[in-house]
Amino acid sequence: MVQLVGSLLKELADSLSSCKVLVVGAGGIGCELLKNLVLTGFKNIDVIDLDTIDVSNLNRQFLFQKKHVGKSKAQVAKESALQFCPSANITAYHDSIMNPDYNVEFFRQFMLVMNALDNRAARNHVNRMCLAADIPLVESGTAGYLGQVTVIKKGMTECYECQPKPAQKTFPGCTIRNTPSEPIHCIVWAKYLFNQLFGEEDADQEVSPDTADPEAAWNPEETAARATASEKDGDIRRVSTKEWARSTGYDPIKLFNKLFKDDIMYLLTMDKLWKKRKAPTPLDWQQLENSGHPQGESPTTSGLKDQQVLDVWGYCQLFQHSVESLRSQLQEKGEGAELVWDKDDPPAMDFVTAAANLRMNIFSMNMKSRFDVKSMAGNIIPAIATTNAVIAGLIVLEGLKILSGELESCRTIFLNKCPNLRKKLLVPCILDKPSLNCYVCASKPEVTVKVNVQKTTVLSLQDKILKERFGMVAPDVQIEDGKGTILISSEEGETEANNNKFLSDFGIRNGSRLQADDFLQDYTLLVNVLHTEELERDVEFEVVGEAPDKAPPPQSNQEEVNSITNGNKDSAQPSTSSKAAAADDDIMIVDSDEEGGAPSSSAAVTTSTKRKHPDPETSETSTKRPRTDQSAAAAATDNDDDDIIALD
Amino acid sequence: MIEKEDPVISEEEAAQYDRQIRLWGLDAQKRLRGSRVLLAGVGGLGAELAKNLILAGIKGLTLLDHEQVSEESCRAQFLVPVSAQGQNRAQASLERAQNLNPMVEVHADPDRVEDKPDDFFLQFDVVCLTGCSRDLMVRVDQLCSQHNIKVFCGDVYGYYGYMFCNLGQEHHYVE
């Protein structure tokens, strides 16, 4: 006689109450998941989240109430969950999962790890930790009405990084600085401007006109001449934007006239740019102030205040007020202070709204409401409770299969917005086997990277290539030169002197091999270096074997497309507006809320390719497809795998 | 027809509902805000329903359940406190349900759904029946269709469940 405890077999029920599980993330999916785990009978649960509660979380993260705003998500989630099962043993960590404290030993405590994340960097990291510890991982993601769950088990299934995921869309520097043609270009520019004026200045986030723009030159020699000229010193232009702003006392009107009049007039002198494009029209503060502008609110009070689009003078004033507020914030923080952009900080958001709109106006684009700018600037992914509830339910069901030892019955499951031809809203697919040349889970992972060894610094190798692109957290690199020369040490300060040197300074050239290790992730990657002098503008490196980034079609607001986004994935920044331990550093369709300082001119734009299957992450549509069972063709009447569908 | 009673969305609502307004739009949010929903049955399925509806920001939700809280109730759903055994299930669930979103009017009704007269159902825009008998579902479905009230029925049995909805002869929607 089979013994049941509720709907569960007794053996399973027993193992639930004794095993230990880890939930990574206590947000939308995390809250629902915690509730489900506790009610299902799991007794030992660890939950970790670095973030704090925000009012915008309350429409779905139901373990939190208004009174909890500002508090640790993991902590409050634990307390609320304990309410409905006081006997549960829940441990909460208000911390980043990428903290080295959470090493392989830590992960080995658990029988099951479940992700409830919103950014790619953390997902990559947990993926590696679970591979290293050989613990099954249930991965998931949601965006709007769409959701996805999958299972990752070392040696048995694809790991999270087996399928290359398209990198977040970036825009060329000259588009941002010289020839924006879409609102998003202006928004990215405004965010760069924020950093240049108030935050951490970044050489990749220039806002001034780009004199070395190849499009501006009438002949190729001119480009080279301009490039050299702009690199040479001795010009007032060489003063950093921040220094200049400081010298004016952050005078909003002076700033305005430089950015929206003088710099635009300079662009106009680069006449070749405007041969086939509509030329920008500079703005003058005085003129705008003088010209009559209708006072009073627009009568559309039935809309959200944020959804109104102001007139140009309105954005001038918004610019002025936000600059003044941010200036005060800087002063309060003292000498050498830097602000970090946060979409939930009103003056910061106001500033970007104003600056972006003024620029849009200059370049003849229709201006956008603060509401819309916030979506784009903040990489916000619309979210509701129900989708997360469904996905969390599926996570537990997959988890039960795993704990019952039924890994073969695990599936990737997609939650669609509308039923498919077979009237299914939930579509399961067979899990793929590991990719033999996966640069993470293959037995000896290897990649080939094209760089200009004379122009790429050791720091770039560390930050842009190993950390950002290959997901390492604390890389150690040695050159395979027979001497095992150490290029980068994860120990702080040890190899700092190497940072600004070029790879070629160490004898690295075409065909060199580097061994990169991340000891925390128990991960070794062999990097083959190919030297090239022909990389695209603004591209620092290229991974061989990957398709180059293509510009996706402009993304419409909510919609669709089978792209799951959950958090601003690529930037490795966690999704919320937390100022917590986000030191390390993380979109789509809309994506989750934001990043502190996105390293590139990234915008969360989804690639809207039809029929591709969503990735647990966000916007990226993976090449992953649901596959039929081997016998699917013949198994039309096979009730068992009735739900496995072959889609093209 | 659902009236948009108050066209103005407050700052508080705009902030709290921001992420869902960005999904289904302000107009949809206003319609939700004007809707009154009846939920019969506050077991596991009902609790999930209650949570999702309340978080969405409807105008009012009535929790209708004549059952008493048993030991199993606390394991089945998360709205009933472990200390509430013996109490009426709807009333025991009220506090936590209300705390999910103070902007929604949540009521508890301990009566039997079968004992409710026809006009009771007519005060709602949407009626949700969980764990109800077929007879009742047929009766309510027929009654509500005549008055353009949407009806949703559902139940759960272990790993299985079903949902049925009747949105009327002519249901307009936007995608």
UniProtKB/TrEMBL annotation, chain A:
Bias-annotated ranges (Low complexity): 598-608
Domain Ubiquitin/SUMO-activating enzyme ubiquitin-like: 449-536
Span of domain THIF-type NAD/FAD binding fold: 11-409
Pathway given in the UniProt record: Protein modification; protein sumoylation
InterPro entries: ThiF/MoeB/HesA (IPR045886), ThiF_NAD_FAD-bd (IPR000594), UAE_UbL_dom (IPR028077), Ub-E1_IAD_1 (IPR042449), Ub_act_enz_dom_a_sf (IPR023318), Uba2 (IPR030661), UBA2_C (IPR032426), Ubiquitin-activating_enz (IPR035985)
Record Gene3D superfamilies: Ubiquitin activating enzymes (Uba3). Chain: B, domain 2, Ubiquitin-activating enzyme E1, inactive adenylation domain, subdomain 1, Ubiquitin-like 2 activating enzyme e1b. Chain: B, domain 3
Annotated catalytic residues: 174 (glycyl thioester intermediate)
PROSITE patterns: UBIQUITIN_ACTIVAT_2 (PS00865)
Start-end of Polar residues biased regions: 556-579
Keyword ATP-binding on entry: yes
Alphabetized CDD domains for the sequence: Uba2_SUMO
All copies of domain SUMO-activating enzyme subunit 2 C-terminal, residue ranges: 546-642
EC number(s) stated in the UniProt entry for this protein: 2.3.2.-
Assigned protein family: Belongs to the ubiquitin-activating E1 family.
Function: The heterodimer acts as an E1 ligase for SUMO1, SUMO2, SUMO3, and probably SUMO4. It mediates ATP-dependent activation of SUMO proteins followed by formation of a thioester bond between a SUMO protein and a conserved active site cysteine residue on UBA2/SAE2.
Subunit structure: Heterodimer of SAE1 and UBA2/SAE2. The heterodimer corresponds to the two domains that are encoded on a single polypeptide chain in ubiquitin-activating enzyme E1. Interacts with UBE2I.
Name of the protein in question: SUMO-activating enzyme subunit 2
UniProtKB/TrEMBL annotation, chain B:
Protein encoded by which gene: SAE1
Pathway terms, separated by semicolons: Protein modification; protein sumoylation
Organism, scientific name: Ataeniobius toweri
Pfam families: ThiF (PF00899)
Protein name: SUMO-activating enzyme subunit 1
UniProt keyword list: Nucleus, Ubl conjugation pathway
Predominant cellular place of this UniProt entry's protein: nucleus
Domain THIF-type NAD/FAD binding fold: 17-166
Gene3D superfamilies: NAD(P)-binding Rossmann-like Domain
